[in-house]
Specification:
mainly alpha
Length: 505
């Protein structure tokens, strides 16, 4: 005689083992036999939610719509070190732009790609749309709301017969009074259906039913307000929830609100307040480090990343950011140790081998350099990565004096990514060495238009036009270079010479 396991218990077992599809199918069978089985209904909503669940704390991309049509007014000239939106508010202590490349928004390129490092604040709509969409630039994604809509349509695939719960017919007031069902229903509406309005209604009624004493519902209200762009209302709910119950997630949600409101100092204070209650909490320390990094305060960011590693020595982001900082502060040997640590931890991708190749080259371990780049080329996932690897091999070729190989590498970089401004700039320099002035000038102008935030093409074009006698063009390009990098001494000397020329005319 065969003994069969209770279907509900089997569904629960599948859910705990993350076999969500099987769990959902068993719950569907139970509900076909008994449509009013609340346990099966609740389990199925949880399984469907988990299939499309995305952690709200991490994913936060500002789209073009959110950036360009932002109604919250900020001071046009914020005090240095108080705004994430204004580039050039460096706190000092980090390498200059001459050593560490910048993104379009004036931030140093980080050691680890996160959603916030990919978006930024472009000056104009035209510049926002024109910037190439790669991880190393500050191209804003099309729109954050579009992502939620796409997630909503993808979630329909989990139930081909149509939606599991018909939200237009559901009585939210009735469910809000059942604590066991209301929470799973809220998460289903918010994550699976992406219907923020209904989720907000349910959360508001459930909070009222709990006599405003349930911190969990206040956090959910805050999440709904945040998704709707009502940041001040979200702030009130998160603050109220923290007064009732201190939870790490609530600190992170509230800090996200302050970052969106461009109040990094308030966010930092909040993280430190959280650390008083949860000493050594890795997510809070990482949050502080990220804000310091976004504000160009690289030395403080590195200190906090080191604190993160004291608590969790396998934290990939912290290791990558410290390694990249050592590389740009002229310590490639130490950077090499951090990247080797990532290899030992099982990180195995193109970017890591690319960085290892550069570290080996600058640490004068030439035997390892080319084998690292070969491994990077074998692990390439897309054309942009391929272009970056060839560009770096070109740099190595320049370093060893093989300019023919360098020329071919930069050409290959452009073949894979036609928007690679740095490759255009370096090709222009090589063309100039060959005496092809017009070709060099064309490459520099292309680099200028693709990356107005880089100072090198502006400066090189200024030098070139000055040599061929176009003093006005040279002066214009030098001014653009100074705007991009005010501390660049060579640009200042060139501008001084040009002003003397104009004074004598």
């Amino acid at each position: 005689m065969e003994v069969t396991m209770d279907p509900m218990f089997l569904a629960w077992s599948y859910f705990r083992r993350r076999k969500l599809q099987q769990c959902s199918e068993i719950c569907t069978k139970i509900l076909q036999e008994n449509p009013y089985d609340q346990a099966a209904w609740s389990m199925k909503t949880r399984a469907l939610t988990e299939m499309v669940y995305i952690d709200e704390i991490e994913v936060d991309q500002e789209g073009i719509a959110e950036m360009m049509l932002d109604e919250s007014s900020i001071a046009q000239v914020a005090r240095p070190g108080t705004s994430l939106r204004l580039p050039g508010t460096s706190q000092g202590g980090g390498p200059t732009q001459a050593v560490r490349p910048m993104t379009q928004t004036g931030r140093p390129i980080t050691g680890f790609v996160r959603p916030s490092t990919q978006s930024g604040r472009p000056g104009t709509m035209e510049q926002a749309i024109k910037t190439p969409r790669t991880a190393s630039t500050a191209r804003p994604v099309t729109s954050a709301s579009g992502r939620y809509i796409r997630l909503g349509t993808a979630s329909m695939l989990t139930n081909p017969e149509g939606p599991f719960i018909n939200l237009s017919r559901i009585n939210l007031a009735k469910y809000s009074q059942k604590p066991n069902l209301s929470r799973t229903l809220f998460e289903y509406i918010f994550h699976h259906e992406n219907d923020v309005k209904n989720a907000l209604d349910l959360a508001a009624q459930a909070t009222e039913h709990a006599q405003f004493k349930d911190w969990w519902w206040k956090v959910q209200l805050g999440k709904c307000y945040y998704r709707l762009g009502l940041y001040r209302e979200a702030e009130k709910q998160f603050r109220s929830a923290l007064n009732q119950q201190e939870v790490v997630d609530t600190f992170l949600y509230l800090a996200k609100v302050y970052q969106r409101l461009d109040q990094p100092i308030t966010a930092l204070n909040l993280f430190k307040q959280g650390l008083d209650h949860f000493p050594g909490e890795v997510t809070l320390l990482t949050g502080i480090a990220r804000i310091h990094e976004e504000m160009n305060n690289i030395s403080s960011a590195t200190e906090y990343y080191k604190d993160v590693l004291k608590q969790d020595n396998t934290h990939v982001e912290a290791i990558a950011c410290i390694g990249s900082n050592h590389f740009y502060t002229d310590q490639p040997e130490i950077a090499l140790r951090f990247y080797r640590r990532l290899l030992q931890m099982g990180v195995y991708n193109c970017q890591l081998y690319n960085n290892l190749g550069l570290c080996c080259f600058y640490a004068q371990q030439y035997d390892m350099t080319l084998s690292s780049f070969e491994r990077a080329l074998a692990l390439v996932a897309n054309d942009e990565e391929q272009a970056d690897v060839w560009y770096n091999i070109g740099h190595v070729a320049v370093g060893i004096g093989d300019l023919t190989l360098a020329y071919q590498c930069f050409k290959l970089a452009l073949a894979f990514n036609n928007d690679h401004a740095e490759a255009y700039n370096n090709l222009a320099v090589l063309e100039l060495r060959k005496g092809r002035i017009e070709q060099s000038k064309a490459f520099l102008q292309t680099a200028e238009s693709l990356a107005p935030h880089m100072y090198e093409p502006h400066y090189n074009l200024s030098i070139l036009t000055e040599k061929i006698g176009d003093l006005q063009g040279s002066y214009t390009a030098a001014q653009k270079s100074e705007d991009s990098f005010p501390e660049h001494v060579d640009t200042q000397q060139l501008l001084r010479q040009l002003r003397q020329h104009f004074a004598t005319l």
